[in-house]
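Q: what does this look like with uridine-5'-diphosphate bound?
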Amino acid sequence: MGTYDKRTLVTGGAGFLGSHLCERLVKRGEDVLCVDNLFTGTKRNLGALLGDPGFELMRHDVTFPLYVEVDRIYNLACPASPIHYQRDPVQTTKTSVHGAINMLGLAKRVRARILQASTSEVYGDPEVHPQVETYWGRVNPVGPRSCYDEGKRCAETLFFDYQRQHALEVKVVRIFNTYGPRMHPDDGRVVSNFVVQALRGEDLTIYGDGSQTRSFCYVDDLIDGFLLMMDSEKGFHGPVNLGNPGEFTMLELADKVLRITGSKSRVVHKPLPPDDPRQRQPDITLAKTKLGWQPKVALDDGLKETVAYFRGVL
Ligand code: NAD
Ligand code: UDP
Ligand code: UDP
């Protein structure tokens, strides 16, 4: 096992991405404190980690202050799928904004490096394609997605102000749609929905005409990007896009899922939710140059892993 030379805090560590990150950090020998209120995360996601001496779970809501001694902070706490973040939208904004203030206050007191899990949603429904970090975005401030989008935008503002005002070593990554094992089967995101529907023989629900696009990154690739960003040279703060530039329509995704599962499900169309972005594709030039990062897992291969996971769960 590891040498525990670093004490690392992961907020939202019991969620989809957080649990993969905790696993990788413990494997690297870091002493991991996972803080999570278990709103969308579960202890089940943490599996064998719960008995590992390099790992500790604390049930805590990041909108309240937290006094611990750590060297590094990964701030992931925030529900990420539309049905979860829209269930209690005020709490979603509080989690992003108060959560960021508390974690930045903590980082400032203990002089920790701190990474923020931001999102491609800061670009809103973009008129620049593919999206580069210098693009300021087109976000509706008063729609049903705003609690998430504006909360994350404000969190970025706080990160850069703490950097300028208090010389904090902040690291901001903008994550594009990520998928893989341990997605919630019922969180409404497109990859989990399609895979679960296909495996159950239910209709695949395409919202709108299915011509909207997304770019899907496999979870292992994304975690590589997190670790490289946290370890990146002092003074590099981002924001940096992390995502897979392969761009697919929802119709293409449905076809792939049907082929890989061998399912006989049909495809049906449902209304498009308000403010649903038309297209999304990361420009990852910055991540390539500054971090030497690019995704390795093709969508077909990642979908096979994801399907295998859901077969086990269902
Ligand atoms: P998730 O819902 O599985 O994980 C979020 C975790 O945060 C959960 O374990 C939840 O219980 C916890 N949490 C929520 N509110 C909290 C609070 N107030 N205090 C403490 N813990 C709290 O989602 P995920 O997909 O793993 O996303 C993790 C992070 O990455 C989020 O910040 C999300 O915005 C960001 N992100 C994810 C994606 C993606 O495609 N998965 C894309 C862009 C950004
Ligand atoms: N905070 C925290 N843990 C710490 C230090 C601070 O949770 O170890 C919280 C604290 O409650 C405060 C917030 O972080 O509300 C911001 O802290 P900062 O020192 O930046 O601001 P101030 O305390 O001056 O408001
Ligand atoms: N979507 C879909 N069917 C579903 C779930 C989602 O067609 O069962 C669409 C959704 O309207 C959006 C895309 O898939 O255009 C990605 O949705 P998701 O919620 O996964 O991510 P986000 O919109 O946040 O990128």
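Residues 158 and 164 are 10 Å apart (CA to CA). Residues 89-110 form the longest helix (22 residues).
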